[in-house]
């Protein structure tokens, strides 16, 4: 059976793994008990120069480079059809 408008299993696995890394990078007390009251920004290795741009936002630092398939702004649409 062909399934359209779904994420391939391999891509879904990559997204799930990155999401788990993002959760692990956030302070567990904040993530589980007192969610940030401001927008959360994930800064990956090599993006430290962008820190002033996110003044006032809750910043989570990732100790690895951003995957090339992972956009900086998750609210923008990708290049495919939706």
Textual characterization of the structure:
This protein has a domain at 9-61. Helix content is 28%, strand content 10%. The chain has a two-stranded parallel sheet. It is globular. The relative contact order is 0.15. The model has no long low-confidence stretch (mean pLDDT 82). The protein is an alpha+beta fold. It has 2 helices and 2 strands. The chain has helices spanning 9-25, 28-33; strands spanning 40-43, 58-61.
Features:
82 residues, alpha+beta, 28% helix
Helix-strand layout with pairing:
Blueprint: H1 9-25, H2 28-33, E1 40-43, E2 58-61
Parallel strand pairs: 1-2
Biggest sheet features: 2 strands, parallel
The shape, in one word, is globular
- Range of helix content: 25-40%
Separation of termini? 21 Å
Describe, in short, the structure shown.
This protein is of the alpha+beta class and 82 residues long. It is built from two helices and two strands. Helices cover 28% and strands 10% of the residues.
